[in-house]
C-alpha cells in the first residue's frame, strides 16, 4: 500500500472508529488492578533481568537461538502456560498459551535473536569479546525477557480476577533478516488473535505508532570454474567477477527506481586466494520501499542484473529469497491505549553509576541529547510516512490489530545495531527499560481483556486501513524457513 493510500485509509479508519458509541467495560479494570499488575512485574523483575542477561550472553543469531528459546519456554511453563515448540517449521519458535474460558485472544510477541559482528562487553568503551562474533545490538535479549515477564504478570491478574479469554506468547526467532514471524502468519497461527502487543528496545520512551519499509532479502550465488590465475587464467570463469558485475549493474540501477527505494548488499563469499580463480561467490541483498509492490518490481530488476552478470562472465547464478516482509500498519486505537499506559508507568530514573556509564558512551557519539530524556515520555502521534527499517511484525499487523512501544534501554543518541547498544543491553540500563516495557504491555493487555469495545474499534481500523478484499500472501512466497541463512556461505556449497 502506498503512503498516500495509507493516509486515506487512516482517515477512513478514524471516521469509522468515531461511529462506534462508547460502551461500558465488560469488567472494568480498576486502580487496584493496575497496582496489582505493577507490583507483580516489580516482583518478577529479577527473573526478567536473569533471562535478559543470560540471553545477552548466549548471543545466538537467527534460527540458532536454541538456548534462548528454551530459557523463555521454561519460564512460561513454570508459570502455568501450555507451550508448543517448533511451530511453523521453525525449531526455535514457540506458542505459549493460558486460556480461561471464552473471551478475547490477546498475543504478546517475544524476540531473542542477536546480530552477527557485534560482540561487545557490557562496558562503555568498544571492547570486542574474544572468540564471539554476535551481540545484541538491537536488544532482543531484553525484548523476549520483558515480554515473558509481562505475560506472567498478566496471567496472575487474570487468575486472581477470573478474567475470561486467552493470553498467548509467541516466541519469534530470526527477526533480523530471517522473517521468522512471516512463517507464523503464513501458517495461520494469528488467524484467531484479536490484538497483538509488542515492544522494542529504544533510546527513548515512546508509544508513537509508525510505518516501516517492506522488504525482500536474498542471496545470489555465482558458480564458475577455478583455475590458476596466472598460469591458466583463460581456463577459469570467475564467480567473483559475476558478483562484482552484478553489483555494478545494480548500482547503476539506483538512478532509475522509485524514490524511497533502498538497496544494500554485502559480499559474503568472494574466494580464498588471489591466485585461484574463485569458482564460488555469494552476495547478500536487501531491497526496501514503503510499497510492497515496488519492492517486488525492483527485486525483479536486481535478479535481472544477476542474470546479466552471469551471462557476461560465463558463470551461472542461483537465487534464494531468504526474507520478505510487508510495511507496518499502525493502529491508532491501540496506540492511544498503549500511550496512556506508558504514561501511567512513567519514565526511567538512572543511578549516578548508570548516568556515568551513559555519559561515557556518549563521548563516542555525535551531538547526543541529554541523558535526562529517559525520564520523559515522547508525545504521542501516528506517523504514516518515513520509516527507515523493516520488521516482520509488519506481516502480523496486516492480519490482526497490532501495537507496539519503545522504552529507553539504550543511551540517548546511540545508533541501532551498534556496539554501544550491545553494551547497554547487557547491563542495568537495558534491564530497567525492559521492566518498564513489561509493565506497559501487561497494563495494555489488561485493558484489552476488560474492554471489548476497544478491540472492536481496533479491528474496524485494521479493516479500513488494509482495504477491501485483502488476502494475505507472504512476500517470500511458499518457501520453507531459511534455517541456514546465518550460516557461512562456504559451509553450504
From TrEMBL:
GO cellular component: cytoplasm
Lineage: superkingdom: Bacteria
GO molecular function, one term: para-aminobenzoyl-glutamate hydrolase activity
SUPFAM superfamilies: Bacterial exopeptidase dimerisation domain, Zn-dependent exopeptidases
GO biological process per UniProt: folic acid catabolic process
Pfam families reported in the protein's UniProt record: M20_dimer, Peptidase_M20
Alphabetical keyword list: Hydrolase, Signal
UniProt signal peptide: 1-26
Keyword Hydrolase tagged: yes
Residue ranges occupied by any Peptidase M20 dimerisation domain in the UniProt entry: 216-309
InterPro entries: Amidohydrolase, Aminobenzoyl-glu_utiliz_pB, Bact_exopeptidase_dim_dom, Peptidase_M20, Peptidase_M20/M20A_hydrolases, Peptidase_M20_dimer
Protein's recorded name: Amidohydrolase
Taxonomic source organism: Caulobacter vibrioides OR37
